[in-house]
Specification:
There is one protein chain. The chain folds into 2 domains: 4-215, no CATH class; 253-332, Alpha Horseshoe (Serine Threonine Protein Phosphatase 5, Tetratricopeptide repeat), CATH 1.25.40. Helix content is 64%, strand content 4%. It has helices at 4-16, 40-58, 67-81, 83-86, 113-118, 122-137, 140-164, 168-205, 212-231, 255-268, 271-287, 292-304, 308-321, 328-332; strands spanning 63-64, 90-94, 101-103, 108-112. Strands 1-2-4-3 form a 4-stranded mixed β-sheet, sandwiched between helices. β3 and β4 (108-112) form a beta hairpin. It is globular and about 60 Å long.
Length: 342
């Protein structure tokens, strides 16, 4: 989850990599040692779980399989971290409107479409992909797994021993131990983020991409959250809340932006959010009547707000525009017999 402190740290690191800090020492890329292989029963078992999750993900309707787009993301990753490193990664583009990407220890990288919507050039995209690969190369995911397992094991044994001779002092000692362990886990996570930031800058410094773009990308994201907060009457940005601001549309609202905004509101699911989502989808369709996904979102939003007729008409339009959609059979079930086209 992206927090204000995390964004500020990223901006600072990117700024140090820029031309304004000529005396700063550039981050260095460590020698590549190859993809890590699990050892021991626990790691191997965990790897198998991740492989199973990847197999499910690979079949998901949320994954975008368009070859050109997937090939482009792989090229940007390889340009950022190097061809030897990027071969260890399998990229999945996930249809979700949030600014996010993630990496698992077995080499699965998930890139959300909300990230692709916001980045403005390859260097900005490479910043995020490099950050996630930094977690992978430094085996942060594995380290977090081990740290959590060790910490929870200690707490479990402490609880068992404490139950044998309960007392006020023992409960207080257990609470202090609990705070200490969870505090160390949190600090460990922040340290990992800083290491991944440094590696991301190091990859960019070692590539043909501009490391200064990292600063601009985070500035834009923070401006989006701040503009959204002002629009919602909030004093401070809430980076853990769904936000979508006019900062993205400084060059003018597009059908894609309206659609993404509708997706954000529809996924929240509250009645007022669904009403707003329907309006955003309608705005997208006004700019691009052939936008199939906007018609789909409009139809689903209208159905959930009790406007069955208009919702079914929008869903039928979606099927007309995209008859081979992966969810076509499900959508047809929402339209009364005789109104849906085969």
């Amino acid at each position: 989850m992206i927090t204000r402190a995390f964004l500020a740290a990223c901006v600072a690191l990117a700024w140090l990599a820029g031309a304004g800090q000529a005396t700063a020492q550039p981050a260095l890329v460590p020698p590549y040692t190859g993809a890590y292989q699990p050892v021991g029963v626990d790691e191997i078992g965990w790897w198998r779980e991740m492989d199973e999750e990847e197999a499910i993900l690979a079949q998901s309707d949320l994954v975008i399989r368009e070859e050109t787009l997937n090939g482009y993301l792989r090229k940007v990753l390889c340009d950022t971290v190097g061809s030897d490193r990027c071969n260890a990664v399998r990229i999945y583009i996930v249809r979700a409107p949030f600014f996010n990407a993630s990496m698992t220890a077995n080499g699965t990288m998930r890139v959300f479409t909300g990230l692709l919507l916001r980045v403005q050039n390859e260097a900005e995209l490479g910043t995020v992909l490099g950050h996630e690969f930094g977690h992978f190369e430094n085996r942060h995911i594995l380290g977090k797994f081990k740290a959590r397992r060790s910490g929870t094991d200690v707490l479990a044994w402490a609880a068992v021993l404490g139950s044998l001779a309960p007392s006020y002092d023992l409960v207080r000692t257990y609470r202090n131990l609990e705070f200490s362990i969870y505090g160390n886990l949190y600090r460990y996570g922040r340290d990992q983020e800083r290491e991944a930031d440094r590696l991301a800058i190091a990859y960019l410094n070692n590539s043909a991409l501009r490391p200064q773009a990292a600063s601009q990308m985070w500035d834009n994201l923070m401006a989006e959250a701040e503009a959204s907060a002002r629009g919602r009457g909030l004093k401070k940005p809430k980076f853990d809340a769904i936000a979508f601001a006019a900062a993205l549309a400084q060059g003018g609202w597009t059908a894609q932006l309206h659609h993404a905004r509708g997706e954000l509101y529809r996924m929240r699911g509250a009645p007022r959010d669904l009403v707003n989502a329907a309006q955003f989808y309608a705005d997208a369709i006004a700019l691009d009547p052939a936008h199939a996904e906007a018609n789909r979102g409009l139809g689903l939003s209208l159905l959930k707000t009790g406007q069955a007729g208009a919702g079914q008409a929008a869903l039928q339009r979606y099927l007309d525009l995209k008859p081979d959609a992966s969810d076509a059979r499900l959508i047809r079930m929402m339209i009364p017999a005789g109104e849906s086209q085969p």
